[in-house]
Amino acid sequence: QGEICLCGSRIFVQEGVYDRFLERFVQEAGKLVVGDPSDLKTTTGALISKEHREKVESYIEIARQDGAKVALGGDRPILQAPFDKGYFVNPTILTDVPSTCRAQTEEIFGPVVTVTKFREEVEVIEYANSVKYGLSATVWTENVKRAHRVAHQIRSGTVWVNCWLQRDLRMPFGGMKQSGLGREGGSYSIEFFTDHKTVCMSCL
Predict the structure, then answer these.
(1) Nearest to 68 by CA among 146, 151, 126, 10
(2) In degrees to the nearest 10, what's the CA dihedral of 157, 161, 164, 166?
(3) Cβ-contact 15, 120 below 8 angstroms
(4) In whole angstroms, what is the distance from residue 90 CA to residue 79 CA?
(5) 3-state DSSP call for residue 131?
(6) What tens digit of pLDDT does each residue of 91-119 get?
(7) Distance between CA 84 and CA 36 in Å, rounded?
């Protein structure tokens, strides 16, 4: 349901494959099943609270008002009791979202993603770095040199290449900008979880 800090909420797709990607993405996302978390067929559960659902829905409405198109979802699922009382939102894909729209620049923390077309590499790096957050990013490419070049320029604590959520606990983990301070993982955790104390003593 998108309530994972490492979930990508913005997808940037090169214009040469944009239409193909979007068609396939909408098709696959449409297969997600919202509902009973105890049902093995369910893939998407409820949000944490009524207030949070309202917040997620407000971002969808903000995007609509800013001219975005809803390619999938954007509403609540129709469920049988008792799940009709749950705080569910259908998986939502937004397109044509302006780069300054709050649905692009703020953390929604729900089952909502924006898909944006780009032309040149420099353009997508600018998009990626245009927000105040920088916890994680993912680069998908067949070009190894491009993978290194782009990963180096993205202001994010973790950059995955052609994968997601792969992590060695010995490696440093943390965010840049307003996504946190410091690092944990491996030897970095010693510093992160240590409380330092200063004692000042006057010699009599």
Answers:
(1) 10
(2) -80
(3) no
(4) 11
(5) coil
(6) 999 999 999 999 999 999 999 999 999 99
(7) 10
- Could you give the CA distance from residue 112 to residue 160 in angstroms, rounded to a whole number? 21
Give the single-character DSSP code of 144: H
Task: Tell me how far CA of residue 113 lies from CA of 1, 105, 179, 203, in angstroms.
Answer: 11, 12, 19, 62
Contact assessment for residue 111 and residue 73, using Cβ atoms and an 8 Å cutoff: yes
Query: Counting every residue, how long is the chain?
Result: 204
Q: Report pTM.
A: 0.92
Residue 156 and residue 128: Cα distance in Å, rounded?
9
CB atoms within 10 A of CB 134: 21
Count CB atoms within 10 A of the CB of residue 132.
Answer: 11
- In this predicted structure, the answer to whether residue 43 has a pLDDT above a threshold of 90 is yes
Query: What contacts 137, CB < 8 A, 6 or more positions away?
Result: 8, 128, 154, 156, 158, 159, 160
Name the amino acid, one letter, at 146.
Answer: R
Cβ atoms of residues 175 and 157 within 8 Å: yes
Checking 139-143 for CB contacts under 8 A at 24+ apart, the result is none
Give the amino acid at 141: T
Q: Measure CA 106 to chain center.
A: 10
